[in-house]
Amino acid sequence: MSKSKALAFIIAALAYYSLFSSSPKPHYHALFLSSSFSDNASVALHLRTLTRRPHVAGSAANAEAAAYVRSSFSSFALKSHVVTYHVSLTYPLHRSLVLTPSESAKPITFALEQEQIGDNPYANEVTPTFHGYAKSGNASGPVVYANYGRVEDFVGVNASGAVVIARYGKIFRGDIVKNAYRAGAVGVVIYTDKRDYGGDECFPASKWMPPSGVQVGTVYNGLGDPTTPGWASVDGCERLSDEAVELAGDSPQIPSLPISAADAEVILKTMVGDVADGDVYPAGPGPGMLNLSYIGETVIAEIENVIGVIEGEEEPDRYVILGNHRDAWTFGAVDPNSGTAVLLEIAQRLDKLRKRGWKPRRTIVLCNWDAEEYALIGSTEWVEENREMLASRAVAYLNVDCAVSGPGFHASATPQLDELIKQAAKEVLDPDNTTQTIYESWIGSNNSGVIGRLGGGGSDYASFVQHVGVPAVNMLFGGGYPVYHSMYDDFTWMENFGDPMFQRHVAMASVLGLVALRLADEQVLPFNYVSYASELKKSAEDLEKEQLGHGIDVSPLIKSIQDLYTAAQGINIEKEGIKGALRMREVNDRLMMAERALTDRDGLSERSWYKHLVYGPSKYDDYGSKSFPGVDDAIDNAKRLKTKESWGHVQHQIWRVSRAIRHASLVLKGELR
Description:
With 673 residues, the protein is α/β, with parallel strands linked by helices. The chain has helices at 3-20, 26-33, 40-50, 60-75, 173-182, 194-197, 242-247, 261-272, 337-355, 372-375, 377-385, 387-393, 418-425, 438-443, 461-468, 491-498, 503-521, 529-545, 555-576, 581-593, 629-641, 644-669, and strands at residues 79-100, 108-109, 131-132, 137-145, 163-167, 187-191, 217-218, 256-259, 289-310, 315-325, 362-369, 394-404, 409-413, 429-430, 433-437, 472-477, 615-618, 621-627. It folds into three domains: 25-85 and 303-521, 3-Layer(aba) Sandwich (Aminopeptidase); 88-300, Glucose Oxidase, domain 1 (3-Layer(bba) Sandwich); 529-669, Transcription Elongation Factor S-II, Chain A (Up-down Bundle). The chain has 22 helices and 18 strands. β10, α9 (337-355) and β11 (362-369) form a beta-alpha-beta unit. The protein starts with a helix and ends with a helix. Residues 1-21 form the signal peptide.
């Protein structure tokens, strides 16, 4: 873009803020977006440094990465400190997988190794492929294919006593293992199918996963340290025994291993001969027999969250929190350190703003989490330790994880932040087409500017939204990428395929940083609960369309949403004519606390840690986001049990959500009844 066009863009941004922003600091926000404040080279250097070595949680290399983040925060004049926890982590001690193709055939022992490509001197430090928190043990049985391992993929499949082979791509791997166990399987291997992750050429010639590539990851179905469910893993704390952890129900009940596409093809050929290119494989069982053995080591390891703080000038007790995790299963160029580089870029720009005289109205907290890959542990322990402070003081949480893996902007959020995200996207040029803004490219894309929701457990926003009820955002460029959680997710992959010029990293810092600035600086919080009510109305209408019968009445839910809509319209009118600091503070508190009202102290049935009754993970896919998850769980249960009592529980869950939404309406109105 030419200098004249850049200048015109900045002038337009200033004009926009002067007309529409309630912030007294539009000049600083425009500066934050200016080319003089951004630095592609420093972003690339941050990422190269962070991804030099594999840095799984609990390792010396990850401690080095933590020190680098803290040093960077300090160089940007942030008050920084490290919060440590001692948590239960697992590492592999022994792995083996042996295939006997038929009774007369010679057994095949798989190496279970990813091929080293290039001359990375630290490739030998990559942890052997395994599943975090996998159950130790031996499993032997005929092979059964279960597609993506979803509940519906086991219908008509005889998995009893079998070792299931399933492919990644649709649901959380921990739910694949859980679904296989419920179907009677004794073990599971999960592979990266070339139909989902492969191409004619593979890395390093192209972006696609090499045949030997393996997606590792956790199979634990809970959040946080398994030995401290609901409380922080501080020194001297209460801990559950190994037996109690297993009985809690979130740990896998059968052994599992991740394997490569190449190894999976050998196994599948024993079932069907030449592996077909179509979407359906025969299910088995056999004739091939698999013998799987895994032994893991459980240790109490130290993890480190690095925290940087810019104290607010007018409202230091209100927190706008930005977060990203640092630990990676291997090198982590996309997941998560593209996000870490973005976080550091934002910190650097905020330092430049302060040197120009800017001070935030509210406190900005930058958090670099540890041990996310195992079970969102660093953020969850911190949220559990600071629960009451966050419940009374947190304005919003802004998350960035896999910040960049390719082109195309995506955002997910709690709905009161939808309009703010769109406004920010209108102020930043598309890094892949500088003739238009990110917003213009976004609405013209396949997802047409659709904002996702944060009910799933995919990243560190989960504890903030689902446990405390803090409004939240998650943003990224790209999406799913072929080398996810493999040793090929390194700086070379990013430099060649993910973001060669690092302009997407810079753009992500601009959008996320601008959202943070507006939340930190605007006198009246830029929340719009009309968007929230409209979103809930769609979800309630979808529920009504199911025509559940059995006397189920959705009208209490629809009535409560209409009340929320009315209250949201009312506070929007109030926001226009606020006078006086105390009145402004009171309105802001109502806007901030309405999300908290959607939580319930008892939480979801049989999943009490999850307090949010509107957004939470699907019971059968931790990555899947559900509206009204308690209602959804009850419906699944009633369809299975087919009893009057189970359908009565569905109605009870509808009433629970209705009451929570009504509470949010009362908070927005700010009046006692």
